[in-house]
């Protein structure tokens, strides 16, 4: 073997080692990418699970407060042959997020008075309940205030209820108990205190 041959063999060996290092680096780099993507996916899943968990807790807390109101809508809707749906803390794109939402499919055959009756149902139902409780049940003074607040909250019409009562035709055209905002919905500032006062009178 000559000196030149030895140098050539050495260079060739170094070239092979360099190629091997590049190959290993490529393999190492490609192995990091899936790991990073997997970690990101796990983080997203974890955040989603956490958000779902908190939403569930919030719904459990809110449900006893808002369900009586929504159930009154649903009960009257069933009487008229509608198929009601109730959601607690529903996803909403409006300016305010409702605590609860009642809805049911309606069509052109649904009478205007039926739509309005379903919308006004909580007021009628819980004023009747307050009247019956006031007549037949003697409520302890220590719990009278919570009972008044609960029944008045359940009876009070929301802005959405009043919007539907004032514009049932739009609800029928939409095919559901959903309408655009109405100027009448601001009347809740007046109707809610009045409802609370009437409930208190009926109970005491």
Automatic annotation (TrEMBL):
Q: What ranges does the record give for the region Disordered, renumbered to this chain?
A: 1-47
- Record keyword Transmembrane present: yes
Q: What name does the UniProt record give this protein?
A: Uncharacterized protein
InterPro entries given in the database record: DUF3267
**Biased composition, Basic and acidic residues: where in the chain?**
1-27
Q: Where are the transmembrane segments?
A: 113-137, 143-164
Q: Which UniProt keywords apply?
A: Membrane, Transmembrane, Transmembrane helix
Question: Looking at the record's lineage, which domain of life comes first?
Answer: Archaea
């Amino acid at each position: 073997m000559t000196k030149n041959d030895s140098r050539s063999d050495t260079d060739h060996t170094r070239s092979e080692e360099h190629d091997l290092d590049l190959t290993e680096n490529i393999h190492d780099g490609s192995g990091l990418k899936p790991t990073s993507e997997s970690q990101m996916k796990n983080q997203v899943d974890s955040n989603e699970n956490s958000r779902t968990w908190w939403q569930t807790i919030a719904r459990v807390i809110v449900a006893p407060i808002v369900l009586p109101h929504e159930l009154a809508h649903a009960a009257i809707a069933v009487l008229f042959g509608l198929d009601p749906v109730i959601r607690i803390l529903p996803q909403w794109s409006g300016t305010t997020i409702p605590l609860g939402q009642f809805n049911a499919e309606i069509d052109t055959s649904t009478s205007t008075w039926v739509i309005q009756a379903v919308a006004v149902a909580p007021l009628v139902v819980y004023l009747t309940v307050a009247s019956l409780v006031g007549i037949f049940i003697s409520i302890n003074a220590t719990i009278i205030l919570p009972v008044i607040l609960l029944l008045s909250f359940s009876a009070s019409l929301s802005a959405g209820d009043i919007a539907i009562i004032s514009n049932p035709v739009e609800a029928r055209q939409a095919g559901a108990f959903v309408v655009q905002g109405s100027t009448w919905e601001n009347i809740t500032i007046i109707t809610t205190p009045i409802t609370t006062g009437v409930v208190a009178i009926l109970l005491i």
